[in-house]
Amino acid sequence: MRYRLLGRTGLRVSQLFLGAMTYRESSPEVRRVFDLYADAGGNVVDTASMYGESENVVGELLQGRRDRFVLATKYTGSIDGTDPNAAGNHRKSLVRSLEQSLRRLRTDYVDLFWVHVWDRHTPDEETMRALDDAVSAGKVLYAGISDAPAWVASRANTLAEWRGWTPFAGLQVPYSLLSRDVERELLPMAQAYGMSVAAWGVLAQGVLSGRYNAPDAAASRRDPGSLTERERTAARAVVEVAAELGVTASQVAIAWVLRRGVHPILGASTVEQLKDNLAATGVELPGEAVRRLESAVGFELGFPGDFIDQVDRSPGIYGEAVDRLDGR
């Protein structure tokens, strides 16, 4: 396992994150999965206040080794459906959710605290100041944002920069060969602000693992009969490349995300699944294979991305010396 820095911080985080959303109890298999991830050098475990018993399970699994992990959790989702203030990104919700998470996780602090989803009813200023107060109190070390428009994350980090508050060091988004929308605005924004990107859904509910390709495939997270032709085409391309490279389809799909400099969040529920997923770090995708994968279902940036790329070398826009300019 290799490591990268979290955003513009000195925190070392592993290439692959471990997602704990499905943890309902500390079963022997869950513990084996967790131990295998740790033994492989993984050090980031990701959960959330709204993932049922997940925080309690993670807290139990971390006993005796808390300091070796970068513990990440999230707030926004309701922790009491009868209370309108038990959800959202306002200060009261943040404080209440964080305190509950700390109790469940059996720790004094969270390494990475994510805003789970943009709450359009709470001013960005309130959220960023409340996060900075949590950092000042020593209960949170770093902050991140998940599932939000690029302009929201950008404005929030600009506010933090101007006012001396803690900025978002990480961005969490859905990303896979079948879901590349974030390439339009969110990934360029994260690069501009030096934010690390973590991706959920890298196997597209198992579609890119190839499990649904067989005529007699059993239903799992998806009913095989519900797959669209676009999904089937992408899955076939991944399976074909995997066969040529002598690896599994899941490893190819994860390796493609890693190649983009993004941290895949692994949601493996069994040791065998995790062993397979971890091996993706050793998969090198040839350029020709990448082109085949990306052209299988097609993707267009649309406006303004495609337009800006088109005019970037236009003498009519930038003058006759445009081809002699060495850009960043």
Automatic annotation (TrEMBL):
It comes from the Bacteria. InterPro entries: AKR, AKR_Detox_Biosynth, NAD(P)_OxRdtase_dom_sf, NADP_OxRdtase_dom. Keywords: Oxidoreductase. The keyword Secreted does not apply. One of its GO terms (molecular function) is oxidoreductase activity. Pfam families: Aldo_ket_red. Residues 16-296 form the NADP-dependent oxidoreductase domain. This is Aldo/keto reductase. The lineage of its organism: Bacteria, Bacillati, Actinomycetota, Actinomycetes, Streptosporangiales.
